[in-house]
Amino acid sequence: MERLLEAEYIPFYFHDIRTNEIIAFHAFLTSLSDDYTANYESSEGFGRVEPVKIYKSTARKIGLSFYVAATSPDDFEEMWVKINKLVTLVYPQYSEGRTLTSEDGKYQFTQPFSQMIAASPMIRIRLGNLLSTNYSRFALARLFGATLGGAAAPKFGGDAIKLDAKKLGDAAKALVTSQTTADGNTWLVQSGVSYDVASDAGGIGPSVGIGPGKANIAEWKVGIEGDYIPVTIDKVDPTDPTMVIIKTKKPDADFFSGQGLSDTDRQTVLIKWVTDNYADDKNPLYNVIDKKFRVKAAWLRPTGATKKKLFKDAGVETSAIDDLTKFLDPEKNSLVKSFKSAGGRGLAGFIDSMNFDWYDKVRWDDRPGHKAPMMCKVTLSFTPIHDISPGLDSQGYNRAPIYPVGFFAHSTDTDNKK
Questions:
Q1: I need a labelling partner for 282 at 20 to 30 A (CA). Which of 9, 48, 324, 328 fits?
Q2: Where is average pLDDT lowest: 181-190, 249-258, 314-323?
Q3: 12 is in which domain, residue-wise?
């Protein structure tokens, strides 16, 4: 579901961790604030005017308001389902209660009001890349000491990890160069973006013809499939050097293994799903396999195989990195598995307050059983709980950026974070 919402214009949703339900809204925002308050213990010293500050904690508070509106009867029904679910996010979940049974066994029922509070309303909130989890497997690897050097360099089953800054820089440069080179490396496209069909000569081409009397496609609006269809670069667009012509490929087992998915059963399911939905002539509007498209080079994401090849070509020792990848396999590492099973793409925390404005310029529905506002303004205060505590590590690096925005920030894809 989160992969599907990733293809939205701006993903905006609430994830109830207790039930794993997700309620999504259009991001009709009216206000958004993010406040940090650092707390210190003050100690006054003799001869000093200003006190010495000793760090204690930092509190973060997010303020958010948005409109929920219904423009049709169907929207009205959905709106009120979502509002009622939203209200439950400030109430607890209860236990089953105590079961009572009569002596003769004819009656067995739950004792009224015997249900106890069993779970607090912890949620995850997602708003684009601004409000998002700061977890990544790279940040988690650093908690295991993966970036330490010298005598503290860790081993994860083989040789110690040795990171050469110059070679890593060379690999990064090679990665950027490869984004505009027809070198056979494989890439992934960005979800939620539309790409024009390209001609064999480069540039924008005619719609792809599927057959007489059948629909054509002039562009590919990438959805959930963007993480499962590899592409190769065919050539640089002669009309714009920042654009490239890519060709889509059908994924195989090697592709998924390179992406860190070693489960062969899931590989088989995903390959069949891509083939049935995106390489089928009977489904012309989504038939995008073995087609060419015009995309922005900077938006291409390297596959696991491409990253490994470019690192190896730059002289970066990859055997120790492979050992680390195996060490962080969710099926073998219980800590990684806990993040994968209980995590999500949103920012975890609790809603402190929630307000509904039912009155300001609001029209009401007057149908029987539906006599209620057709729009409302929701205002809430949210206290986050970061998956990885923010701050600097012993080497002075950012442990886990709070705002995963931009090229150098980690992906929000919690299934394949590296």
A1: 9
A2: 314-323
A3: 2-134+343-384
